[in-house]
Amino acid sequence: MPLDRTGQAEAFDAIGDRYDEAFPHKEGQVASAEWLIRSLPGEARVLDMGCGTGIPTALQLTEAGLRVVGVDLSDAMIALARKNVPNGVFHQADIADLRPGGSRDLGRFDAVTAFFSLLMLPRTEIPLALRTVHHLLPPDGLFALSMVEADVDDFSIPFIGSTIRVSGYLRDELREVVEAAGFEIVDESLYTYAPSSADVPPEVQIFLRCRRRT
Fold first, then answer.
1. What is the SS3 assignment for 133?
2. Which CA distances in Å does 204 have to 72, 78, 139, 201?
3. pTM score, two decimals?
């Protein structure tokens, strides 16, 4: 099935470091990364899927001594991540590239993060992306993800001066989709967040901390 990414990478290329200005408070993301740091051995290998500018997650994890590989669809975001997190390794790539038999083989990881990156996919692709994460992890490997709670599928919204397409689930359905992909949800937290950008509405953010089932 051909993938339609029309305008998605270009939007984030145009947004650049204004993303961090619009979302200055990322308590849920920081807390989930802290969970990984506490749970993983030193020098564990972590994939930051949809790494954006590298702030805060890739920087937080590398400063804790973890080996971070980040991927993002946007060339501009990758350039910023390389600047912001000199100890990380970053690749311009689509999540679909990392599937079994895909065009990019970055090896296996002890943990994966996907903070607000899966919502950039149509709903038909999200279970495939979750199975890709499952493939990249060993049994009991850790997975931290976040989504905005919304019952939408590939829906166009204004976003920091650009237009992007987003998908989401209500929280019970999100749990079902994640568990069906082979993960045990070990913790969940919710945050109500009002971005500083005027064209981004307040949102409920769902953070799940998961473990790959054997």
1. helix
2. 23, 27, 31, 10
3. 0.89
